[in-house]
Specification:
about 80 residues, mainly alpha, rod-shaped
Length: about 80
């Protein structure tokens, strides 16, 4: 909406810049939340005794996938418990 206002002459450049800045901050907050969620999953599995440093060292590192959703805790726990 802000870019349309700018094109029609009813908006200001600062409005567009502020909207883009807000969108970028939201993307950063989402990425931060995903990292914290994944770290919490690792901490939970470690607290339950399902993983330890030895398990982590013997696993190949997975490359991150852009846009991938974090794995729900139920599937992470059931996968780890089945090993």
């Amino acid at each position: 909406m802000t870019q349309q206002d700018l094109r029609t002459g009813t908006g200001l450049t600062i409005d567009v810049l502020q909207a883009e800045n807000a969108a970028e901050k939201a993307r950063l907050r989402r990425a931060t939340a995903m990292v914290r969620y994944n770290q919490a999953q690792i901490n939970l599995l470690a607290a339950l005794g399902l993983i330890d440093q030895t398990n982590l060292e013997n696993q190949p590192a997975a490359a991150p996938v852009l846009g991938a959703q974090a794995e729900p805790p139920e599937s992470a726990l059931s996968r780890a418990a089945s090993k």
